[in-house]
Amino acid sequence: MAEPDDVEALFERVAADCGGVDVVVNNAGINPGAALGSPERVDPEGFDAVADVNLRGAFLCARAAAEHLHESGGSVINVASVGGLVGLPRQHPYVASKHGLVGLTKSMALDWAPDVRVNCLAPGYVATDLTEDLRDDEDLRESIVDRTPLDRFADPEEVAGPAVFLASDAATYVTGATLAVDGGWTAR
């Protein structure tokens, strides 16, 4: 688990080495086997591990960067998931943490406006290391692709583009928003 003092020291160093902090992208996410299953089977320690990385880590990073972001008029982009917008079976800690991240985004946006914009991305299934097991299982892959109107997993670059938009001057009037980048998953 990240410690607040360590995260604050990291952002002080980044600010010193880079001349400030303009954008923070909170993109950490885990969903280990110990946190999967029906609610009564989820290991409480697995739940805590997911919440610590997916929600607490994002909070600590944004909090540590706050002063720098207020100085620069910067932007925070929290990366949640479609699991932050809808329920997903057998993924209770992950879904709870990502819903929490959507709520955290809205609250931070209200508190930090007008100086800092805080937004959220909610990607669908992306071809990354985190989804490798899903893609390798033919039945799971097919069920996900069948549920996705664009009929495939996203490439990471397809999530990077919307992140660049939210960080850019093209989004100066966007704050507190969650942008689904999900191939149409949540449109159903």
Description:
The protein has 188 residues and is of the alpha/beta class. It has a single domain, classed as 3-Layer(aba) Sandwich (Rossmann fold), CATH 3.40.50.720. Helices cover 48% and strands 11% of the residues. It contains six helices and four strands. The chain has helices at 4-18, 44-72, 92-112, 132-136, 138-147, 157-167, and strands at residues 23-26, 75-79, 117-123, 178-181. The chain has a four-stranded parallel beta sheet, with helices on both faces. The longest helix has 29 residues, at 44-72. The mean pLDDT is 96.
Key traits:
four-stranded parallel sheet; 6 helices; alpha/beta; 48% helix; 188 residues; Rossmann fold; globular
